[in-house]
């Protein structure tokens, strides 16, 4: 048995430190989710973890792009309605460019993981992407319903 097999997953522990396992030898979904969020929160506050300069830069680019996107979306609503299309295009471009740069600058981390862990991370990324698409589809449907009922 390797050293890694002896490690107890924190997600499989209850508040008293007792191991709790659900079906198929895995911790229940919500317990695992809460434990993972707690683990990420602790890692985010850990001062011993260093962040690459390119990651800090991409984070700052993304923050700036979000502000620029908000400004470009607000301009036509309050000031220059004739500039709506160019402003919306700029908002879309700034956000999509920054999001792409943010993701691509972190993608190389997958090569440092074991194949199984890299595949799990990939599945999480795909799932988060599909969830986001689903949110936007629902937002569009809701907008169409509101438009059809109240604004037509």
Give an overview of the whole structure:
Helices cover 68% and strands 0% of the residues. The N and C termini lie far apart (68 Å). The chain has 4 helices and no strands. The protein is extended. With 152 residues, it is mostly helical. The relative contact order is 0.06. α2 (53-78) packs antiparallel against α3.
Low-confidence stretches: 1-7
The coarse overall form would be extended
SS-based structural class?
A: mainly alpha
What is the H/E string?
HHHH
Cα-atom Rg, whole angstroms?
22 Å
The number of helical segments is 4
Instruction: Give the CA-CA distance, first to last residue.
Output: 68 Å
Largest sheet: none
Task: Report the β-strand fraction as a percent range.
Answer: under 5%
Helix content class: 55-70%
The total count of strands amounts to 0
